[in-house]
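Quick one before lunch.
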Amino acid sequence: MALTTDLSGKTAIITGSNSGIGLGVARELARAGADVILNSYTDRDEDHALAEEIAAEHGVTARYIQADLSKGDQARALVEQAGICDILINNAGIQHVAPIEEFPVEKWDAIIAIMLSSAFHTTAMALPMMRKAGWGRVINIASAHGLTASPYKSAYVSAKHGVVGMTKVVALETAKEPITANAICPGYVLTPLVESQIPDTAKKYGMTEEEAKQKVILERQPSKEFATTEQLGGTVAFLCTDAAAQITGTTISVDGGWTAL
Ligand code: NAD
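Model of the nicotinamide-adenine-dinucleotide complex:
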C-alpha cells in the first residue's frame, strides 16, 4: 500500500503556537490537511484571528484555545476542551539566562512547569484519545540543549533533557500500538525567543546586532545559518506520515550540525 503524507481527518494540538516554531508547525500541519488547535496563555483577538487565517488558507478547521501551561490543571483542560487529539505537539517554551547561584527560583519553577510538566500533563490526557482513535503522534519540541549544555541555562537545559527522557518513556509505553513519540531538537531558529536575546548579546560583547547573531549566537551552529520555522514544521509533518511509523523514542536534530561537533 502507498505510504500517505495526507493528514486529512487528523486533529493536532500545538502548544505555544501563536508565535515562532509553534505557529510554523501549525501552518505546515494544516498544509498537510490536519485540523489544528492553536494555544497560548493570552486570549487576544489576534490569537483567534491566526486560527481563522490558517482555516481560510488551508480549508481545515482551526481553533485557538487559551491555556496557561505553567498551571498543570490548565494544561490538562486544554486537551479536554479540544476533545480530540491525534497529534500532540508540546512546543510552548520560555528562556531565562543566569548563573545557577543567581538563578531566580520563580524562573526555574516557570521554565520547568511550562516546558516539562505541561508536556507530562498534555501527554497523559492525549494518549487515551489516541488509543481510542487507533493512531497517534506525540512530538516534543526539545532543543540541541536537550542533548548538550551551555552555561547559565540550568533550567532550560534541565527541562529539555527531561523532555527527551520523557519522550523515550512514552515511546516505550506505546511501542506495541500505532502511536509514536519523538523529540525534535532544533539549534537556533530566528523566532521572538531568540530575537529577544540579540540586543543584550550585542551590548555585552560590544558588537553590532548582526555581528552578535553570526559570531555569538550562531557560534555553535556550524552551518552559520538559522533553521527556519517552516523547516521545523516540515520535520513535524514528516513524523506524522506513514513513512515515520517505525520512528519512535528518538531525537531528530535540526541544528545545522551543532550536535555533530
Ligand atoms: P516563541 O517565544 O516564539 O514561542 C514560544 C511560544 O510559547 C509562544 O507561543 C508563547 O506564547 C508560548 N508560551 C510561553 N509561555 C506560555 C505559557 N505559560 N502557556 C502557554 N504558552 C506559553 O519561541 P520559539 O523559539 O518558537 O520556541 C518554541 C519552542 O522551541 C520552545 O520550547 C523553545 O524552547 C524551542 N526551541 C527554540 C529554539 C530557537 O532557536 N528559537 C531552539 C531550540 C528549541
